[in-house]
Amino acid sequence: MKRDLRQKFVVGNWKMHTTATEAMQLARAVVDGIGIDGMGVKEDDRVFVMICPPFPYLALVGEILKGSRVLLGAQNLYPEKEGAFTGEVSPTMLLDLGCKFVILGHSERRHKLGESDAFINHKVRVALAAGLDVILCVGETLEQRKANQTEALLDRQLTCGLADVPADTLIRLSIAYEPVWAIGNLEHHATPQQAQDAHAVIRRRFAQMFGEKSAQALAIQYGGSVKPDNAAALLCRDGVDGALVGGASLIADQFLAIVLAAISASRTKRKSA
Ligand code: 13P
Asked: How many whole angstroms from its chain centre is CA 97?
Protein backbone atom coordinates (compact mmCIF):
# COMPACT_ATOMS: atom_id res chain seq x y z
CA MET A 1 0.00 0.00 0.00
CA LYS A 2 1.40 3.38 -0.99
CA ARG A 3 2.15 5.33 2.11
CA ASP A 4 0.05 8.45 2.41
CA LEU A 5 -1.02 9.02 5.97
CA ARG A 6 -3.18 11.94 4.84
CA GLN A 7 -5.54 9.28 3.46
CA LYS A 8 -6.60 8.89 7.13
CA PHE A 9 -4.51 7.50 9.90
CA VAL A 10 -6.30 6.06 12.93
CA VAL A 11 -4.28 5.24 16.03
CA GLY A 12 -5.38 3.66 19.29
CA ASN A 13 -3.42 4.89 22.27
CA TRP A 14 -4.19 2.40 25.02
CA LYS A 15 -2.31 4.48 27.62
CA MET A 16 -1.80 2.58 30.93
CA HIS A 17 -4.69 0.18 30.44
CA THR A 18 -5.32 -3.56 29.97
CA THR A 19 -3.91 -6.73 31.41
CA ALA A 20 -1.91 -9.06 29.17
CA THR A 21 -5.01 -11.14 28.48
CA GLU A 22 -7.13 -8.10 27.71
CA ALA A 23 -4.43 -6.69 25.47
CA MET A 24 -4.31 -9.88 23.42
CA GLN A 25 -8.11 -10.09 23.17
CA LEU A 26 -8.38 -6.46 22.11
CA ALA A 27 -5.63 -6.76 19.51
CA ARG A 28 -7.22 -9.93 18.12
CA ALA A 29 -10.63 -8.24 17.89
CA VAL A 30 -9.13 -5.27 16.03
CA VAL A 31 -7.21 -7.49 13.61
CA ASP A 32 -10.26 -9.68 12.92
CA GLY A 33 -12.51 -6.66 12.54
CA ILE A 34 -10.21 -4.98 10.06
CA GLY A 35 -9.54 -8.15 8.06
CA ILE A 36 -10.56 -7.77 4.46
CA ASP A 37 -13.90 -9.50 5.06
CA GLY A 38 -14.35 -8.08 8.52
CA MET A 39 -15.97 -4.73 7.81
CA GLY A 40 -15.90 -4.31 4.11
CA VAL A 41 -12.37 -2.97 4.05
CA LYS A 42 -11.08 -3.11 0.50
CA GLU A 43 -7.51 -3.87 -0.47
CA ASP A 44 -7.11 -0.40 -1.95
CA ASP A 45 -8.60 1.48 1.01
CA ARG A 46 -5.79 3.73 2.04
CA VAL A 47 -6.51 3.83 5.73
CA PHE A 48 -3.68 3.25 8.13
CA VAL A 49 -4.49 1.74 11.49
CA MET A 50 -2.14 1.40 14.41
CA ILE A 51 -2.40 0.37 18.04
CA CYS A 52 -0.07 1.47 20.80
CA PRO A 53 -0.24 -0.88 23.79
CA PRO A 54 1.68 -0.37 27.03
CA PHE A 55 5.38 -1.38 26.84
CA PRO A 56 4.99 -4.76 28.63
CA TYR A 57 2.52 -5.99 26.01
CA LEU A 58 4.27 -4.83 22.84
CA ALA A 59 5.73 -8.25 22.08
CA LEU A 60 2.46 -10.10 22.76
CA VAL A 61 0.41 -7.71 20.68
CA GLY A 62 3.09 -7.59 17.98
CA GLU A 63 2.70 -11.35 17.46
CA ILE A 64 -1.04 -10.93 16.94
CA LEU A 65 -0.60 -8.05 14.46
CA LYS A 66 1.89 -9.95 12.29
CA GLY A 67 0.58 -10.38 8.76
CA SER A 68 -2.34 -8.00 9.39
CA ARG A 69 -2.69 -4.43 8.18
CA VAL A 70 -2.61 -3.09 11.74
CA LEU A 71 0.66 -1.42 12.69
CA LEU A 72 2.35 -1.54 16.09
CA GLY A 73 3.38 1.66 17.85
CA ALA A 74 4.81 2.69 21.20
CA GLN A 75 3.61 5.38 23.57
CA ASN A 76 6.99 6.79 24.49
CA LEU A 77 10.76 6.16 24.49
CA TYR A 78 13.92 7.31 26.18
CA PRO A 79 16.30 9.12 23.84
CA GLU A 80 19.42 7.00 24.29
CA LYS A 81 20.58 3.86 22.50
CA GLU A 82 21.34 1.96 25.69
CA GLY A 83 22.94 2.44 29.07
CA ALA A 84 22.30 2.99 32.74
CA PHE A 85 18.77 4.38 32.49
CA THR A 86 16.81 2.25 34.91
CA GLY A 87 13.25 1.63 33.85
CA GLU A 88 13.56 3.27 30.44
CA VAL A 89 12.99 1.87 26.95
CA SER A 90 15.21 2.70 23.97
CA PRO A 91 14.33 3.25 20.30
CA THR A 92 16.37 0.15 19.42
CA MET A 93 14.23 -1.98 21.73
CA LEU A 94 11.06 -0.66 20.15
CA LEU A 95 12.31 -1.40 16.65
CA ASP A 96 13.39 -4.83 17.82
CA LEU A 97 9.81 -5.52 18.93
CA GLY A 98 8.40 -4.50 15.56
CA CYS A 99 7.26 -0.98 16.41
CA LYS A 100 6.99 1.31 13.43
CA PHE A 101 5.98 4.49 15.25
CA VAL A 102 6.31 6.20 18.57
CA ILE A 103 4.02 8.81 20.12
CA LEU A 104 6.00 11.69 21.63
CA GLY A 105 5.04 14.86 23.49
CA HIS A 106 1.68 13.53 24.64
CA SER A 107 0.00 16.06 26.92
CA GLU A 108 -0.05 13.54 29.77
CA ARG A 109 3.72 13.32 29.57
CA ARG A 110 4.05 17.10 29.29
CA HIS A 111 1.65 17.94 32.11
CA LYS A 112 1.69 14.95 34.46
CA LEU A 113 5.33 13.92 34.03
CA GLY A 114 6.81 17.36 33.42
CA GLU A 115 8.43 16.77 30.02
CA SER A 116 9.80 19.97 28.53
CA ASP A 117 9.77 21.07 24.90
CA ALA A 118 13.55 20.61 24.81
CA PHE A 119 13.36 17.03 26.10
CA ILE A 120 10.59 16.21 23.64
CA ASN A 121 12.65 17.68 20.81
CA HIS A 122 15.57 15.48 21.84
CA LYS A 123 13.31 12.43 21.73
CA VAL A 124 11.90 13.39 18.32
CA ARG A 125 15.37 13.74 16.81
CA VAL A 126 16.69 10.51 18.35
CA ALA A 127 13.59 8.53 17.32
CA LEU A 128 13.74 9.71 13.72
CA ALA A 129 17.48 9.11 13.52
CA ALA A 130 16.95 5.56 14.85
CA GLY A 131 14.42 4.85 12.10
CA LEU A 132 11.17 5.14 14.03
CA ASP A 133 8.34 7.25 12.66
CA VAL A 134 7.07 9.87 15.08
CA ILE A 135 3.68 11.24 16.04
CA LEU A 136 4.35 14.52 17.83
CA CYS A 137 1.44 15.64 20.01
CA VAL A 138 0.66 19.30 20.53
CA GLY A 139 -2.28 21.08 22.10
CA GLU A 140 -3.39 23.85 24.42
CA THR A 141 -4.96 23.78 27.87
CA LEU A 142 -8.39 25.25 28.52
CA GLU A 143 -6.82 28.31 30.19
CA GLN A 144 -4.65 28.91 27.14
CA ARG A 145 -7.63 28.58 24.81
CA LYS A 146 -9.70 30.97 26.92
CA ALA A 147 -6.83 33.47 26.93
CA ASN A 148 -6.58 33.26 23.11
CA GLN A 149 -3.15 31.70 23.35
CA THR A 150 -3.88 28.60 21.28
CA GLU A 151 -2.01 29.76 18.20
CA ALA A 152 1.00 30.99 20.17
CA LEU A 153 1.14 27.73 22.11
CA LEU A 154 0.95 25.57 18.99
CA ASP A 155 3.61 27.75 17.42
CA ARG A 156 5.88 27.26 20.44
CA GLN A 157 5.37 23.50 20.69
CA LEU A 158 6.06 23.05 16.98
CA THR A 159 9.02 25.42 16.86
CA CYS A 160 10.71 23.84 19.89
CA GLY A 161 9.57 20.27 19.27
CA LEU A 162 10.81 20.22 15.69
CA ALA A 163 13.98 22.28 16.06
CA ASP A 164 16.86 20.80 14.06
CA VAL A 165 14.80 17.94 12.66
CA PRO A 166 16.48 16.99 9.36
CA ALA A 167 14.34 17.75 6.30
CA ASP A 168 14.79 14.25 4.89
CA THR A 169 13.05 12.73 7.93
CA LEU A 170 9.92 14.90 7.74
CA ILE A 171 8.19 12.28 5.63
CA ARG A 172 8.27 10.03 8.74
CA LEU A 173 6.68 12.59 11.00
CA SER A 174 3.05 13.31 11.72
CA ILE A 175 1.40 15.64 14.20
CA ALA A 176 -1.50 14.98 16.54
CA TYR A 177 -3.50 17.99 17.64
CA GLU A 178 -4.78 17.05 21.08
CA PRO A 179 -6.35 19.94 22.98
CA VAL A 180 -5.72 19.10 26.64
CA TRP A 181 -9.25 20.16 27.62
CA ALA A 182 -10.79 17.63 25.24
CA ILE A 183 -8.86 14.55 26.33
CA GLY A 184 -10.88 11.98 28.27
CA ASN A 185 -13.64 14.53 28.60
CA LEU A 186 -17.19 13.29 28.22
CA GLU A 187 -18.58 16.80 27.98
CA HIS A 188 -16.09 18.55 25.71
CA HIS A 189 -14.45 17.51 22.52
CA ALA A 190 -13.32 20.01 19.95
CA THR A 191 -15.99 20.83 17.43
CA PRO A 192 -15.11 19.87 13.85
CA GLN A 193 -14.58 23.58 13.13
CA GLN A 194 -12.24 24.03 16.12
CA ALA A 195 -10.25 21.00 14.99
CA GLN A 196 -10.10 22.20 11.38
CA ASP A 197 -8.97 25.68 12.47
CA ALA A 198 -6.23 24.34 14.74
CA HIS A 199 -5.02 21.96 12.05
CA ALA A 200 -4.80 24.89 9.63
CA VAL A 201 -2.68 26.79 12.17
CA ILE A 202 -0.39 23.78 12.54
CA ARG A 203 -0.04 23.27 8.78
CA ARG A 204 0.67 26.99 8.25
CA ARG A 205 3.39 26.98 10.90
CA PHE A 206 4.85 23.77 9.48
CA ALA A 207 4.95 25.39 6.02
CA GLN A 208 6.84 28.36 7.46
CA MET A 209 9.35 26.02 9.01
CA PHE A 210 9.78 23.42 6.29
CA GLY A 211 8.13 24.69 3.11
CA GLU A 212 4.74 24.30 1.50
CA LYS A 213 5.43 20.91 -0.07
CA SER A 214 6.30 19.29 3.25
CA ALA A 215 3.27 20.91 4.88
CA GLN A 216 0.95 19.51 2.22
CA ALA A 217 2.36 16.01 2.78
CA LEU A 218 2.02 16.25 6.56
CA ALA A 219 -0.65 14.11 8.23
CA ILE A 220 -2.33 15.86 11.17
CA GLN A 221 -4.54 13.75 13.42
CA TYR A 222 -7.11 15.02 15.87
CA GLY A 223 -7.21 13.53 19.36
CA GLY A 224 -9.50 14.28 22.29
CA SER A 225 -12.62 12.22 23.00
CA VAL A 226 -12.98 10.85 19.49
CA LYS A 227 -15.93 8.44 19.63
CA PRO A 228 -18.01 6.57 17.06
CA ASP A 229 -20.64 9.32 17.16
CA ASN A 230 -18.33 12.25 16.41
CA ALA A 231 -15.64 10.58 14.29
CA ALA A 232 -17.30 11.04 10.90
CA ALA A 233 -17.93 14.75 11.44
CA LEU A 234 -14.31 15.30 12.50
CA LEU A 235 -12.68 13.09 9.88
CA CYS A 236 -14.48 14.60 6.90
CA ARG A 237 -13.05 18.05 7.70
CA ASP A 238 -10.42 19.46 5.44
CA GLY A 239 -6.99 18.96 6.98
CA VAL A 240 -8.14 16.43 9.60
CA ASP A 241 -6.13 13.46 8.39
CA GLY A 242 -6.88 10.97 11.10
CA ALA A 243 -7.62 10.37 14.75
CA LEU A 244 -5.56 9.58 17.83
CA VAL A 245 -8.00 7.71 20.01
CA GLY A 246 -7.69 7.04 23.74
CA GLY A 247 -10.71 5.69 25.63
CA ALA A 248 -12.64 4.44 22.61
CA SER A 249 -9.64 2.42 21.43
CA LEU A 250 -10.06 0.15 24.46
CA ILE A 251 -13.39 -1.11 23.18
CA ALA A 252 -12.93 -3.00 19.93
CA ASP A 253 -16.36 -2.19 18.50
CA GLN A 254 -15.90 1.52 19.16
CA PHE A 255 -12.42 1.62 17.69
CA LEU A 256 -13.58 -0.31 14.63
CA ALA A 257 -16.49 2.08 14.16
CA ILE A 258 -14.00 4.98 14.14
CA VAL A 259 -11.85 3.15 11.59
CA LEU A 260 -14.97 2.66 9.47
CA ALA A 261 -15.72 6.39 9.65
CA ALA A 262 -12.14 7.04 8.50
CA ILE A 263 -12.50 4.63 5.58
CA SER A 264 -15.66 6.29 4.48
CA ALA A 265 -14.12 9.80 4.77
CA SER A 266 -11.09 8.62 2.84
CA ARG A 267 -13.22 7.17 0.01
CA THR A 268 -15.18 10.43 -0.23
CA LYS A 269 -11.97 12.43 -0.35
CA ARG A 270 -10.53 10.27 -3.13
CA LYS A 271 -13.72 10.49 -5.17
CA SER A 272 -13.76 14.26 -5.00
CA ALA A 273 -10.01 14.59 -5.70
P1 13P B 1 -9.39 10.18 24.71
O2 13P B 1 -9.81 9.69 23.34
O3 13P B 1 -9.65 9.23 25.80
O4 13P B 1 -9.90 11.56 24.94
O5 13P B 1 -7.78 10.32 24.66
C6 13P B 1 -7.19 11.03 23.63
C7 13P B 1 -5.73 10.86 23.72
O8 13P B 1 -5.09 11.37 24.61
C9 13P B 1 -5.08 10.01 22.71
O10 13P B 1 -3.70 10.10 22.77
From this structure: 19
